[in-house]
Design a protein that fits this description.
Strand content: 5-15%
Number of helices: 6
CATH class: Mainly Alpha
Shape: elongated
Strand order of the largest sheet: 1-2
Radius of gyration: 23 Å
CATH topology: Endonuclease III, domain 1
Helix content: 40-55%
Mean pLDDT: 88
Structural class: mainly alpha
Low-confidence stretches: none
Distance between the termini: 83 Å
Length: 116
């Protein structure tokens, strides 16, 4: 892998099933293998979008941080995760309705017979 690649700093490796996983310095930690070495997902992929959608619905549209934490605690690492999840949430219709600004109605004109 080229040192200029965005994945180079993640110290990736292929596991026994041919899945690209995140390396790291905590190999001897007492945590499950999937949390220690999460699966690396590209930022622009249909599979990544489906996984983000699943976890976003699972946390009941609570926001970017909670969705990202749910992804990572389930063993997935999205490259550029904060911006990818934030971009997904900005397109989510229920989230836009919940977080949208409150609109004010303009008063209608008074009828003519009430003004005389």
């Amino acid at each position: 892998m080229k040192p200029t690649s965005s994945q180079y700093r993640l110290d990736p490796f292929l596991d026994g099933h041919g899945i690209l996983r995140l390396g790291g310095r905590i190999k001897s930690a007492d945590v499950p293998y999937d949390l220690n070495h999460p699966v690396i997902l590209p930022k622009k992929s249909h599979i990544t979008e489906l996984i983000i959608r699943h976890y976003h619905h699972r946390v009941e549209h609570r926001g970017r941080g909670i969705t990202l934490n749910s992804l990572r605690s389930s063993g997935y690492w999205v490259i550029g995760g904060t911006s990818v999840v934030g971009n997904f949430i900005s397109k989510c219709v229920p989230c836009r309705k919940l977080r949208g600004s409150v609109s004010e109605q303009k008063m209608a004109e008074q009828p003519g017979d009430r003004l005389q």
